[in-house]
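Re: [ENG-882] Designed sequences occasionally contain unexpected residues at chain ends

Forwarding the minimal case from QA. Structure tokens:
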């Protein structure tokens, strides 16, 4: 098993901080009518953050 290597910050392809902010604002800016809707929003927000951390 090899040790994880950090990505090259000069390499394009990651999500910019502005994109993360825009996506999270869009996801969390809509009022949730039910707890299930809120759970879906939080899961979507988690996916955005996970993607940003994995690709940057």
């Amino acid at each position: 098993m090899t040790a994880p290597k950090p990505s090259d910050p000069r390499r394009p392809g990651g999500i910019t901080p502005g994109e993360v902010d825009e996506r999270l604002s869009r996801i969390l800016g809509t009022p949730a009518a039910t707890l299930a809707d809120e759970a879906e929003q939080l899961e979507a927000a988690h996916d955005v953050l996970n993607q940003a951390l994995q690709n940057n």
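QA comment: On inspection the terminal residues look reasonable. The radius of gyration is 15 Å. Proposing we downgrade this to a documentation issue.
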